[in-house]
Sequence to fold (305 residues):
Amino acid sequence: MWFRNLLLYRFSQPTPFSETELLEALEQKPSRPCASQETHTLGWTTPYGRHSENRLESSNGYWLIAMRKEERILPGSVIKEALAEKVEEIENRDARKVYKKERDTLKDEIIMSLLPRAFTRTQTTYACLCPAEGWIAVDSSSHKRAEDLLSLLRECTGTLPVRPLNVKTAPAACMTQWVKEGTAPEQLVIGDECELRDTSEDGGVVRCKRQDLASDEIQLHLSAGKQVSQLALQWQEKLSFSLDDKLTVKRLKFEDLLRDEADDNAGDDMASQLDASFSIMSSTLSELIPALANALGGEDIPQGI
Fold:
């Protein structure tokens, strides 16, 4: 139940649905397997898997939802090979050239013929909503997966006035300054991993692991104009993560202090253990999100919102 990544979004107006309304909306679009001619399906599943029948889990004002995607796997190499064989067959048979428009039509026909025999795979993407504080945290580092979830949620609820969380100072500028000074604000502690990127068009990238970021070597790169594009951080001895210049939180790890607290609060069954973990995780995120925004110069809220 512990999120591993975070993409953060902010409601631009009060949350436009209640818990009951959200649950009714999720039940309109349950997850289902792909039909024979479908490339993929999107729907809502139970966040606790087989340990609950609810498509919405609620704890202390936080809501947990889960989107399940099933897609058919058609390797590009298989399609390319089948298309090449079909084109060669037509050109040899009819003694003519097959041009792009016809190639595209043939490609679509090949995909449709292969789909029923293709293997399927599933992905589940989780999101935590805090209506009282007006944010959504998606457990993914992929903006495409997060947008799929938000689009499906918007489709089901009829409205979803959200935007990515924005800050007043560019994360790269802040992280570069922190590494130069050897300290970060808001109880953040600099770790031993970073990515340095040259700001020129064809600039290089330096990735450091298990490195003293206060060393002369790192400082020399910064003096030469490189910026920190990704940085390992710890926060309040509760969390460790990597923050990048797009404000994406990756490799999020909740430390043993929080996991032990969740274990102490949980009952004997798996559902109560998952619920305890979700409760601790969501309340911790409520502390982290404003602290992170403040460390990056404060949240940038558009005028009129």
Summary: Residues 72 and 132 are 38 Å apart (CA to CA).
